[in-house]
Design brief:
single chain; alpha+beta; 4-stranded antiparallel β-sheet; two-stranded antiparallel ribbon; 12 helices; 6 strands; about 10% strand; elongated
Length: about 290
């Protein structure tokens, strides 16, 4: 009987109520009332006697209990996974979550950045206008000319000095004489229409008189350069307007920011137009 109680106490809670466990407990308990004949008389051992007298448990009882426990574990695992997924979704959708933080950090409006972009467009326009040919020789015609030197595009002013010898002649003195061929090719292939010649340590670049037709054509190039700069300024304004909308700032603040951005846009567009018109006037002579 004591052995039956020990087995019942050590059994898993889910198995204590199983038919197999109850039947085994009754079988073990019934052994207490069986007379104990001498072991030698029955020709066996106590263990043999217990195995013979105890009723075997149906195999399906233990199998059913184990299946029930496995199913319970699977359901618990699925429930825990579902809770984890819901928690992650809530964290991502929350304002302080990872995704919310990235959206908030990406939706920023920096007025100084937009201003720098517009100023860069105006600077590029000034460089392009400086390359255009006018009636009088000017170092600015060649200083910003791009030369493929040392494997990368480089402004001519970084490779040497440019000076005006007279109203119709430019002189280029290179820091590295081995670049003469590349510089000569860049000048000859530029829209300026110059034909440089080698003069020992320097390059001589004649600036011929411009015909009326040539002046008009170069004047149109100045206009196109001005329009290109205006397009860059407008693109910068569009980026700024999009950034203002994404910040979701208060309506009054958004309107003030848009008004300031439009004012800045108008200023740079006017400066680009004035620069192009002034250059065209110098070229055409009117």
């Amino acid at each position: 009987r004591a052995l039956a109680e020990c087995v019942h106490a050590l059994a898993a809670p889910s198995l204590r109520a199983s038919p197999a466990c109850i039947l085994s407990r009754v079988s073990f308990a019934s052994l207490a009332g069986v007379p104990r004949p001498p072991l030698c008389a029955i020709g066996g051992s106590a263990a043999h006697f217990v195995r013979r007298e105890a009723a075997p448990a149906p195999p399906f009882a233990h199998a059913g209990a184990l299946t029930w426990r496995r199913g319970k574990k699977k359901k618990a695992g699925k429930a825990a996974a579902s809770v984890r997924d819901d928690s992650e979704d809530d964290a991502r959708s929350a304002p302080g979550g990872s995704d919310g933080a990235s959206d908030a950090s990406g939706a920023e409006y920096d007025e100084s950045e937009i201003r720098d972009a517009m100023a860069s467009a105006l600077e590029s326009l000034e460089r392009d206008l400086g390359k255009l040919r006018v009636g009088r020789a000017s170092p600015g015609m060649l200083e910003n000319l791009t030369v493929d030197a040392y494997g990368e595009p480089t402004p001519l002013q970084h490779l040497g000095s440019v000076a005006a010898r007279d109203a119709q002649t430019l002189v280029v003195l290179l820091y590295d004489a081995s670049l003469k061929g590349l510089v000569t090719k860049a000048i000859a292939e530029s829209p300026l229409g110059f034909n440089p010649r080698d003069d020992g340590d320097t390059l001589i670049v004649p600036v011929p008189e411009m015909t009326r037709e040539t002046k008009l054509e170069v004047g149109k190039m100045a206009q196109r350069a001005g329009e290109s700069a205006k397009i860059s300024v407008r693109n910068a304004r569009k980026r700024g307007m999009d950034a203002i909308k994404k910040t979701k700032m208060p309506e009054d603040d958004a309107k003030r920011a848009e008004k300031a951005l439009q004012k800045m846009h108008d200023e740079f567009v006017k400066r680009a137009g004035d620069a192009a018109a002034a250059k065209e006037k110098v070229i055409v002579g009117r």
